[in-house]
Specification:
alpha/beta, Aspartate Aminotransferase, domain 1, Aspartate Aminotransferase, domain 2, 2 domains, seven-stranded mixed beta sheet, three-stranded antiparallel beta sheet, 15 helices, 44% helix
Length: 400
């Protein structure tokens, strides 16, 4: 019965153009990877990676990872609370606490294996029965899942509708209030209004959990993220930063008031009951932080913004010249540029047409995005040349 049941559901997904497929990378992460798909290996121009600064294959980070493996081995051996917490893990946490301290004074940081684990830890450990979670409806799946697993009552508000959020806060009767939001929304590329959210948190005695997966390393002075981008400073922030995107390596961290960090260490199941990430990863991440905050990181951020403007100007001109395309380019100043086409089959067809021209641009469909908003999720990197973006624009003209 189980196999029949699953096969029936798989057929239903296929009929709705919702089947997902994997491609196998045959080369390191980069803008021009070799990819195996359906038995055919080819070189493609990729606009689908979250390697926003182009650091995933940076020689300095490759060397740092190798150096870390030579010094610390390839595994941690246990969870952080057993024997897996090494000197280099502790040093990285100190670096990350210092990184965020201009925005969260006195913050302490905890290193996690992934951002998903970090978000599960945050919401399940803090969201007890005395708490209410207030969550933007377009938050990442890890925040949604963390909220569902928490014992707290969860209220969701329509994307960006802070007037709705304020009414929810006004009517809240629990002693603990946690506002939960992405900083940069992963499928739309827009920024949460963090100054206004902080204002609400202060007025209604709430804490503000910020998932900065797509802002860390890219936004703000020295790439210090979305809080620095808005020049915000408050102890009310509980910050999650991902280290496998702009930082080019792997893992994530939570930075917050020391008491919050200690509580997570004591009770967060996705921290306590998982093997610590290899110490070599922490060693490579320390090198990544130096790159991000240095002159090279600054140059890469400038280059990335130039590619964002180039793509948006080209797409806006294309849409204006051909309104019958019925494409929509939402407002986004970040590396995430969604081209909304609406229909699932239409998004898949456009992605396939680009693939035929040697470009890898994924079609994103429900339930990842709302029904009727299937899109190409175009992600830009400092590894892209101006000619790469022009090639994408030309391919879109041909495909349309």
């Amino acid at each position: 019965m189980l196999i029949e049941h699953l096969n029936r559901q798989l057929r239903e997904r296929a009929g709705q153009s919702l089947t997902r497929q994997r491609r196998t990378a045959m080369s390191p992460c980069g803008s021009h990877p070799r990819v195996m798909h359906e038995g055919v290996e080819r070189l493609v121009l990729a606009f689908c990676s979250n390697d926003y600064l182009g650091l995933a294959n940076h020689p300095a980070l490759v060397a740092a990872l190798a150096e870390g493996a030579c010094r610390w081995g390839v595994g941690s051996g246990a969870s952080h609370l057993v024997s897996g917490h090494s000197e280099v893990h502790a040093a990285l946490e100190g670096d990350l606490a210092g990184w965020i301290s201009p925005c969260i004074p006195g913050a302490r940081a905890l290193f996690f294996g992934t951002g998903y684990l970090a978000n599960l830890a945050l919401l399940t450990a803090l969201g007890d029965a005395r708490a209410t979670l207030f969550a933007d409806k377009l938050n990442h799946a890890s925040l949604v899942d963390g909220g569902l697993l928490a014992r707290a009552h969860m209220q969701r508000y329509a994307h960006g509708r802070l007037d709705v959020l304020e009414r929810q806060l006004q009517n809240c009767t629990t002693p603990v209030r946690l506002i939960v939001t992405d900083a940069v929304f992963s499928m739309d590329g827009d920024l949460a209004d963090l100054p206004a959210l902080l204002n609400l948190a202060e007025r209604y005695d709430a804490w503000l959990i910020v998932d900065d997966a797509h802002g860390f390393g890219v936004l703000g002075p020295q790439g210090r993220g979305s809080l620095a981008h808005f020049d915000l400073r408050s102890e009310r922030f509980i910050y999650m930063g991902t280290l496998g995107k702009a930082a080019g390596v792997a893992g994530a961290f939570v930075a917050a008031h020391p008491t919050i960090a200690e509580w997570l260490l004591q009770v967060a199941r996705s921290y306590i009951y998982t093997t610590a990430a290899p110490p070599a990863i922490a060693h490579a991440l320390r090198a990544s932080l130096e790159l991000i905050t240095g002159e090279e990181g600054a140059r890469r951020r400038v280059w990335l913004q130039q590619r964002v403007h180039q793509l948006r100007d080209g797409l806006a001109a294309m849409i204006a010249q051909r309104p019958s395309l019925d494409w929509h380019l939402p407002e986004s100043t970040t590396a995430i540029q969604p081209l909304i086409v609406g229909d699932n089959e239409r998004a898949l067809s456009l992605s396939s047409a680009l693939e035929a021209q040697g470009l890898w641009v994924p079609a994103i469909r429900p339930p990842t995005v709302p029904l009727g908003t299937a899109r190409l999720r175009i992600t830009l990197s400092a590894a892209h040349a101006a000619g790469d973006v022009e090639r994408l624009l030309t391919a879109l003209r041909i495909a349309s």
